[in-house]
Design a protein that fits this description.
The protein has eight helices and nine strands. By secondary structure, it is of the alpha/beta class.
């Protein structure tokens, strides 16, 4: 995996500018406002990368599509169920193919897999920006630009599920809670699923990357309502009817950590000085994720939400997310009728 992705996880008229096989022309349809495809590029037989210009982002984004068998028939009205895979804080959709090789999974040959990009540490949110709003508007990009574009032009149907790693796990749950009926099932893999439990961790990550710590949701005290509005822990009733799967480690070395695994890079301010991590924790981020996921699971069960969990010994690292994605896929695909 790219070291840049790993470090950040811790913490753009259709122009057929195609490499390799030419892309089939999209079927007729009106593109949604705010988004324009500027390039289609095939990467292998089934993987199509769209470069888009987005008003919500104020610039360029990408969307990778792992196309199903028969996808070329979409011009005749064919539609496929959709699996959204949401990247971690690095925001790079390449991770799903370059790190996890999802295109090799035979069970994904009859669904459309959508892997959208996100600005670094975008947190699947329209940023507050001191009350001024404006870019980046990540939720608007994904749900009001990308989703209708894919449903009108690229064969995406109305049956949807989502899974995500780290911040992407948060994205899957917050999108589902803020938009009832959007997803039938979601899976969070080491997700930041309850950010108000550890607001200092969110703000430390912003500081570490040189971003304005108040721009995302403001101050966790003064703008607590905004934090709560995005935190799925405070909207459990809106997840009823959604199958939820949560998995995370405890930050200690586990079976997928090779001997001599080094601790995560130090992120100043991540650790609460009044509640220090145990000495054997190599991955403070994963220790935080473990606590948040356990709290979320209890919260959802108390509100009648169907939840499955897998909590284990392990760090905040891709080998665990690859394993956990494969473990969650059967339930996600059943929710799609597959």
């Amino acid at each position: 995996m790219s070291m840049a992705r790993k470090v950040i996880a811790w913490g753009a008229a259709l122009l057929l500018l195609v490499t390799g096989t030419a892309a089939a022309a999209a079927p007729p349809g009106e593109r949604p406002p705010g988004i324009r495809v500027t390039e289609e590029r095939w990467i292998g037989d089934r993987l199509l990368e769209l470069t888009v210009r987005s008003a919500a982002l104020g610039g360029v984004g990408t969307v990778r599509l792992l196309t199903p068998d028969g996808w070329e028939d979409r011009g005749r009205g064919e539609r496929w169920p959709v699996l959204y895979l949401l990247a971690g804080g690095h925001g790079d959709p390449k991770a799903w193919t370059e790190d996890y090789a999802v295109e090799r999974l035979p069970q994904l040959r009859d669904v459309l897999v959508v892997m959208p990009s996100m600005p670094v540490f975008g947190f699947y949110s329209d940023w507050w920006n001191g009350g001024a709003g404006g870019a980046p508007r990540v939720e608007t990009f994904h749900l009001d630009e990308v989703r209708p574009l894919l449903e009108r032009l690229y064969g995406a149907g109305g049956r949807r599920v989502a899974a995500g790693e780290s911040q992407g796990g948060f994205g899957a749950l917050t999108y589902a809670a803020r938009n009832p009926g959007l997803f039938r099932a979601v899976a969070g893999l080491s997700g930041y699923v309850h950010p108000l439990q550890h607001p200092r961790a969110v703000r430390a990550g912003l500081d570490y990357l040189g971003l304005d710590r108040s721009a995302l949701w403001g101050d966790p005290v003064a703008q607590r309502r905004i934090w709560q509005d995005h935190d799925p822990y405070y909207r459990p009733e809106r997840l009823r009817g959604v199958e939820v799967h949560l998995s995370s480690g405890d930050g200690r070395a586990g079976v997928l950590d090779p001997p001599g695994t080094e601790p995560d890079p130090h992120v100043p301010g991540l650790e609460d000085p009044d509640d220090l991590f145990p000495a054997d924790v190599l991955s403070p981020t994963e220790a935080i994720m473990g606590a948040e996921n356990r709290a979320m699971a209890s919260r959802l069960r108390a509100h009648g939400v169907a939840v499955t969990t897998h909590f284990y010994r392990g760090t905040h690292s891709p080998p665990y997310w690859e394993r956990e994605l494969r473990g969650a896929l059967p339930a996600l695909l059943r929710a799609l009728g597959r």
